[in-house]
Amino acid sequence: MNLGILKYDANNVSFFMFSLGSAILEEYGFRGIVFPKVMQVAKGSSFRKLMFGITISGVLFGLIHFQNIFYQPFLVTFQQVMGAIPFGILMAVLYARTSTILIPMLFHFASDFNSYFTTNSFFAGVFYNSWWQVLINYAIALLAAIIFLRPAVVNKIKLINHD
Q1: Considering the entire predicted model, what is its pTM?
Q2: How many other C-beta atoms lie within 10 A of the C-beta of residue 123?
């Protein structure tokens, strides 16, 4: 069946389900569970707790991608891990800013699903053709954090499971 630019085949359906499942499970795990728990154990001001939660959940999200070493070359896996860290940070920023897990889930799904169609691969890490792309991811995450988490905005964010 042809649906315009997308054609129905088993690989597309499989990757749709894989992308959806990854987005739901990873976002629920890292933003829904890890992020608030890390904020609970952090000491200091609300801003410090928020930044600690965002950073730790993003780094752990990236590190979990080392499991792909069993399916792809080390350099590709390492670039994927290094790219997933700022992506995880960005997802935590979106979660903190919107107070809903659905926004990071949808963004994560779109990112994973798009990577399949741009690389024709089940492994998102292969789309990193250079370290510049990894650095651009860090720049985007940093810019989003600066814009969405400036002090005036942070004071209005309801911290998840805090105090």
Answers
A1: 0.77
A2: 16
Closest C-alpha to 29, from 82, 97, 108, 86:
108
Got the DSSP string for 22-51? HHHHHHIIIIIIIHHHHHHH--S-HHHHHH
Q: What is the pLDDT of residues 46-85, one digit of tens each?
A: 888 888 999 999 999 999 999 989 988 888 888 889 888 9
By DSSP bridging, strand 6-7 and strand 2-3 are antiparallel
- All residues at 6 or more sequence positions from 131 whose CB lies less than 8 Å from its CB, including other chains: 79
Alpha carbon distance, N-terminus to C-terminus of the chain: 54
Is the dihedral angle over the CA atoms 126, 130, 133, 138 positive or is it negative? positive
